[in-house]
Design goal:
mainly alpha, 10 helices
């Protein structure tokens, strides 16, 4: 009979592979942004939120916080590097006002992360207490990561178009949530189970919207580009 820990490790490895696919899924979007030299109507929100999410889960998986979580560390550290690249591309091709908002958000995230580390190490002296404290925060931010596409989902319903909601990102979100929920159930970890269960639900809703509005999407529509004069004026006023 296969031991539960062995099954959990196998599921965790599968989860790493799918999560890697999740982090890779926006690649066609960023290729499009790079070629057009414009972020068009794509939003940086999901990627900025995911930066903090990956930092928190990497910290959660460290042995002195939550032992036996190597697979959580590996995928989230890789994800952090990839999300920073995505955010960097947004910084290159966004307007000045958007760049400013992204930089402020990243600064706030960094300060918050440092504060969490200090509180964890100075106030909590057992892995059980550290896991509980960091785990609660991870749940909140993982929910934020999965909730971030709500702005895009609202746009889909309003415009009856899925042009700016990448299909593979939605599919990867759904598969990722399912696999990590199973991983959490095998060695009950509520901190992993709750956000990934909600993530699977979020991904499912996105797939349903994609199925509903795929036929009404005008794929030939010209991409939205900010007017050059407006962009120059905004940059001059805020510099």
């Amino acid at each position: 009979m296969v031991h539960t820990d062995t099954v959990r490790t196998i599921v965790g490895i599968i989860g790493n592979v799918i999560s890697f696919g999740l982090f890779l899924s926006p690649l066609p979007t960023f290729v499009k942004i790079w070629k057009s030299k414009s972020v068009q109507a794509f939003k940086p929100d999901p990627y900025v939120v995911t930066v903090l999410n990956c930092m928190m889960w990497t910290f959660y998986g460290l042995p002195f916080v939550h032992p036996d979580s190597t697979l959580v560390i590996t995928i989230n550290s890789i994800g952090l590097a990839m999300e920073l690249i995505y955010v960097g591309i947004f910084l290159i091709f966004s307007t000045w006002s958007t760049r400013k908002k992204i930089c402020i958000a990243l600064l706030i995230e960094t300060i918050f992360f440092i504060v969490v580390i200090l509180i964890t190490l100075l106030l909590f002296h057992t892995t059980k207490k550290r896991s509980l404290f960091v785990g609660i925060i991870c749940i909140l931010f993982n929910i934020c990561m999965y909730a971030a596409p709500l702005t895009i989902m609202k746009r889909v319903i309003t415009t009856k178009s899925v042009k700016y909601m990448p299909f593979y990102l939605s599919l990867a979100n759904f598969a990722n949530g399912i696999v990590w929920a199973i991983y959490a159930l095998l060695k009950f970890d509520v901190n992993v189970l709750v956000p990934n269960g909600l993530g699977a639900l979020s991904g499912l809703v996105q797939l349903i919207l994609y199925a509903i509005y795929y036929r009404t999407t005008n794929w030939e529509e010209e991409p939205e580009k900010p007017a050059a004069n407006v962009e120059l004026s905004d940059s001059t006023n805020r510099a």
